[in-house]
Amino acid sequence: IQVLPSEAALFPLMLDFMYCESSLPLSSGRACTLYAMADKFVVPLLQKAIQNFVEKSLTLTELIEFIQHAQDQQFYKKEIERLVLCATSKLCAYLVKYPSEARLVQPPLLLNTL
Known about the structure:
Distance between the termini: 37 Å
Shape: elongated
Largest sheet: none
Order of helices and strands: HHHHHH
Number of helices: 6
Strand content: under 5%
Structural class: mainly alpha
């Protein structure tokens, strides 16, 4: 199995999660790559942990950053599609609850989200 440099940097985190059940030091930037790695190496619990992170831990600004980062990840597009859908749904729900915050979202991202 070939591993990209971005994956190699995060491989120790994935192993720690798998074998030590340690919590993940996640960020919006790491989440996409780790989710794709979990898909590649068939680690569904890691995918679930990252999905929970996206659903419950990201602020609006981090959520926007995550979606923008995910859209730039052309290599992982298929693998992270479900995670991006989860993040987009959360963003929509947030904007319905706080419509004035839509000003923080760039127009192209806002159009793609809604």
